Amino acid sequence: MTLAELNRLPPTGLADALQTCCGSSAWVEAMRGIFPVADRVTLLQKATIIWNDLSEADWREAFTHHPKIGDIASLKEKFASTSAWAAGEQGAVKEAPLEVLEALAAGNEAYEQKFGYIFIVCATGKSAEEMLALLQARLPNPPPQEILIAMAEQDKITRIRLEKLLAA
């Protein structure tokens, strides 16, 4: 869809389109308020500004709209509306050796137990081994530091998905 087409969507259609980019309802609502948008740069800048101004609860809500890295079953079931994008973002995981997938599963479990949300990483362009290394490197982080890293990763994901939305 073009930016002009996005600008012309009715409120519910716009909300649905934005929801595919970020699962925070507060972000979607705030983003709806900036339309019509003059250009792509403004759209991306506003998306980040709005994201950064949200609460931790809003960030955590967005995280719930992602499958765990490597969890192909949940990609297909729970996240049907964004599964094609998520599968592409996590494409390298499908090629990973079993021991890497098992380590990712164990790391995801440890991460979720420690922080209370799934491991969020902008997976685009990363191998399963790279994502595992990032997960293992971030696991020792204190929660106040990790939430900021996770929210920055979500911002990257959102921006990529906004670009994909405009390319569709």
UniProtKB/TrEMBL annotation:
Keywords: Decarboxylase, Lyase, Purine metabolism
Protein name, entry field: 2-oxo-4-hydroxy-4-carboxy-5-ureidoimidazoline decarboxylase
Annotated TM spans: none
Organism encoding this protein: Hymenobacter wooponensis
Biological process annotations from GO: purine nucleobase metabolic process; urate catabolic process
Pathway: Purine metabolism; urate degradation; (S)-allantoin from urate: step 3/3
Enzyme Commission identifier(s): 4.1.1.97
Catalysed reactions, as listed in the record: 5-hydroxy-2-oxo-4-ureido-2,5-dihydro-1H-imidazole-5-carboxylate + H(+) = (S)-allantoin + CO2
Superkingdom per UniProt: Bacteria
Domain Oxo-4-hydroxy-4-carboxy-5-ureidoimidazoline decarboxylase: 7-163
Lineage summary: Bacteria, Pseudomonadati, Bacteroidota, Cytophagia, Cytophagales
Xref: Pfam families: OHCU_decarbox (PF09349)
Name of the top EC class for this enzyme: lyase
One example GO MF annotation: 2-oxo-4-hydroxy-4-carboxy-5-ureidoimidazoline decarboxylase activity
PANTHER family from the UniProt entry: 2-OXO-4-HYDROXY-4-CARBOXY-5-UREIDOIMIDAZOLINE DECARBOXYLASE-RELATED (PTHR43466)
